[in-house]
Amino acid sequence: MKTHLGFKLLAIFLAGFSSIFTFGESQTNPIDASVMLALKRSLNQPEDLGWSDPEPCNWMHVVCSEDKRVTRIQIGHQNLQGTIPLNLSNLTELERLELQWNNISGPLPSLNGLSSLQVLMLSNNQFSSIPIDFFTGMSSLQSVEIDNNPFSAWQIPESLRNASTLQNFSANSANLSGKIPEFLGPDEFPGLINLHLAFNNLEGELPSSFSGSQIESLWVNGQKSDAKLSGRIDVIQNMTFLKEVWLHSNAFLGPLPDFSGLKGLESLSLRDNSFTGPVPMSLVNLGSLRVVNLTNNLLQGPMPKFSNLVAVDMTKDTNSLCLPEPGDCDPSVNLLLSIAKSMDYPTKFAENWKGNDPCADWFGITCNGVNITIVNFQKMGLTGMISPKFGSIKSLQRLVLADNNLTGTIPEELTTLPALTELDVSNNQLYGKVPAFKNNCHSFCMYKSKQKRFSRVQSPNAMVIHPRHSGSHNESVKITVAGSSVNVGAVSETRTIPSSENSDIQMVEAGNMVISIQVLKSVTNNFSEENILGQGRLWDGLQR
Ligand SMILES: *[C@@H]1O[C@H](CO)[C@@H](O)[C@H](O)[C@H]1NC(C)=O
Ligand SMILES: *[C@@H]1O[C@H](CO)[C@@H](O)[C@H](O)[C@H]1NC(C)=O
Ligand SMILES: *[C@@H]1O[C@H](CO)[C@@H](O)[C@H](O)[C@H]1NC(C)=O
Ligand SMILES: *[C@@H]1O[C@H](CO)[C@@H](O)[C@H](O)[C@H]1NC(C)=O
Ligand SMILES: *[C@@H]1O[C@H](CO)[C@@H](O)[C@H](O)[C@H]1NC(C)=O
Ligand SMILES: *[C@@H]1O[C@H](CO)[C@@H](O)[C@H](O)[C@H]1NC(C)=O
Ligand SMILES: *[C@@H]1O[C@H](CO)[C@@H](O)[C@H](O)[C@H]1NC(C)=O
Ligand SMILES: *[C@@H]1O[C@H](CO)[C@@H](O)[C@H](O)[C@H]1NC(C)=O
Ligand SMILES: *[C@@H]1O[C@H](CO)[C@@H](O)[C@H](O)[C@H]1NC(C)=O
Ligand SMILES: *[C@@H]1O[C@H](CO)[C@@H](O)[C@H](O)[C@H]1NC(C)=O
Ligand SMILES: *[C@@H]1O[C@H](CO)[C@@H](O)[C@H](O)[C@H]1NC(C)=O
Ligand SMILES: *[C@@H]1O[C@H](CO)[C@@H](O)[C@H](O)[C@H]1NC(C)=O
């Protein structure tokens, strides 16, 4: 009985306690309340906001959870001024912070540790800086909008890596500098859909890590830094979810990539860059495309003809197209463009090769009437490969590709050129064999018969087959391959013979090695014809 009464009393006591406790819960969490009151003060006690109740959980535009923690502050477009209190990060249950379109100023406080925060809308204010640890621990973050704030210069911080759940990141006109971080790629940010970084001071290239990303909307247009965003945009071809790509007003260059994988691409703005090469058919044929901006680049080849569904921004004469209307280019233009293709459509050519007639004073091209006789691309910073299509310029007499960074081999097709008298590919990064030119024996055999001296060319990684005097008649092809590692792999180091530069010893240089002509002679049966360079056995001989 006593025990029973004791239980009853205990039950009544507990009920009373719990009602007191519940009453306590109907109050805003005291920490959150103190931060909210601080926010109200720092926003200059805005009267229109409906923030007069002593309980912040009862305020307009504020939402609390059942346990009276502040989860939402939604005061966008309220004509607010003032600043944000430093301890906003004490609102640890905050899910949405919406302050957009006000005139709030001062530094943004760190929101370090707001692990429930999902949506952050701070655009169109007067915030003066953003701390480097701003995003630390924001492991629930889905959407960030911080556009149009006069931030002091900042870079996308490492702390953003904590927000790998991000879907939207929008920081247009936010004074961002530095590079677009590689970490924004799909490995760390698999859900990123909208990345808007227009009108900042970004530089560098589109990160190669973007390959395979799910990004649908990419705005990086209008970078104001001197360098702007630059480089090629090949990675775009692997961003197959893209619907909207705005790259305009930057310093991107090189050929346009293959667009055939971008089945949903609707809007592509590439204007005001330095893109070269033709507009790819993979873009022209894209069924989803509705808007394309190509004005003011260095695009080459024919004027593209898009479907009627596409709004095309391609002002005449603001590119390097062969004709102002759709239609085929002259075959000689197509030929030179196919040659430029293997060198990734160099900017230098795209700037100069205008119109439909390569003989009209095109850079590097000399003609006799309508026939191209000389191609001189010496020292133009070229990369890529020597196109086999050179073999189609039947009237070609001299081909000078010296002092570039070309790689690959010397194409066999060059041996078919009937009028070729000189091929100079010295000082490149070529490898492989020098092909057997039809009349090559004339020049090479000439060394044998006349004992011409081989001059030594000072250049690392060099192999020189370089006559001091070419033939006295022009039937032979003078071939210069100095400075390339043609066949260098086949040369054995044991044959190295040191020599001073002015030595009269007849020399062939290979890699860091110099081989005397006597050694060459001995391993090639006195340069017998079976061992002509390009037929292989010379180098087998050297290896023996
Ligand atoms: C937040 O800072 C304000 C002063 O700006 C202070 O009154 C308030 O007590 C602080 N709240 C917490 C939880 O630190
Ligand atoms: C408020 O946040 C700061 C920084 O995170 C922390 O040091 C402090 O302990 C917090 N104050 C309260 C009352 O939780
Ligand atoms: C915004 O605030 C700044 C001071 O921070 C003030 O000079 C400016 O007039 C305000 N603009 C508007 C539209 O309220
Ligand atoms: C992301 O941005 C899109 C487009 O602005 C918007 O519709 C969507 O609601 C945003 N996502 C989140 C989580 O806010
Ligand atoms: C933006 O950053 C640049 C440096 O990149 C700085 O000179 C400029 O003052 C910054 N703008 C503002 C509004 O702070
Ligand atoms: C946040 O990033 C830091 C390193 O930048 C890391 O140490 C920490 O574990 C991350 N936290 C979360 C919640 O991802
Ligand atoms: C595109 O993706 C393929 C397959 O993953 C990869 O091999 C290639 O390097 C990527 N190209 C670019 C330009 O990112
Ligand atoms: C792109 O072209 C469309 C259609 O002509 C035009 O409406 C739009 O303003 C252009 N965009 C830019 C950035 O020029
Ligand atoms: C141009 O080449 C063609 C065919 O190779 C030849 O018939 C013609 O005479 C050449 N013209 C000139 C001006 O060399
Ligand atoms: C050739 O490429 C190398 C590195 O690949 C670079 O260091 C060098 O400057 C380049 N030379 C020219 C002439 O472009
Ligand atoms: C032989 O070639 C040289 C240089 O390539 C040239 O100057 C000369 O005119 C040519 N001679 C003849 C007979 O074609
Ligand atoms: C190479 O020529 C020299 C004379 O110039 C001769 O003595 C030698 O036997 C020849 N060697 C071969 C392998 O033909």
What does this structure look like?
This protein has 544 residues and is an alpha/beta fold. Among the domains are: 364-489, Ribonuclease Inhibitor (Leucine-rich repeat, LRR (right-handed beta-alpha superhelix)), CATH 3.80.10; 491-544, no CATH class. Helices cover 15% and strands 19% of the residues. The strands form 7 sheets. It has a 12-stranded mixed sheet, with no helix packed on it. Strand 23 (365-368) and strand 24 form a beta hairpin. The protein starts with a helix and ends with a helix. The relative contact order is 0.04. It binds 2-acetamido-2-deoxy-beta-D-glucopyranose (NAG) (12 copies). It is a single-pass membrane protein. It holds the Pfam family LRR_4.
Label the CATH architecture of one domain: Alpha-Beta Horseshoe
Strand pairing plus helix content: what structural class? alpha/beta
Main sheet record = 12 strands, mixed
Number of strands: 31
Estimate what percentage of residues fall within beta strands. 15-25%
Summarize the structure.
The protein has 544 residues and is of the alpha/beta class.
List the helices and strands and how they pair.
Elements: H1 2-25, H2 30-42, E1 62-64, E2 70-74, E3 81-82, E4 96-98, E5 103-107, E6 119-121, E7 126-129, E8 143-145, E9 168-170, E10 177-178, E11 194-196, E12 201-202, E13 217-219, E14 230-231, E15 244-246, E16 251-255, E17 267-269, E18 274-278, H3 281-284, E19 291-293, E20 298-301, E21 311-313, E22 320-321, H4 331-341, H5 347-352, E23 365-368, E24 371-376, E25 398-400, E26 407-408, E27 422-424, E28 429-430, H6 440-450, E29 478-480, E30 507-510, E31 513-516, H7 517-523, H8 537-543
Parallel strand pairs: 2-4, 3-5, 4-6, 5-7, 6-8, 8-9, 9-11, 10-12, 11-13, 13-15, 14-16, 15-17, 16-18, 17-19, 18-20, 19-21, 20-22, 24-25, 25-27, 26-28, 27-29
Antiparallel strand pairs: 1-2, 23-24, 30-31
The protein binds 2-acetamido-2-deoxy-beta-D-glucopyranose (NAG) (12 copies).
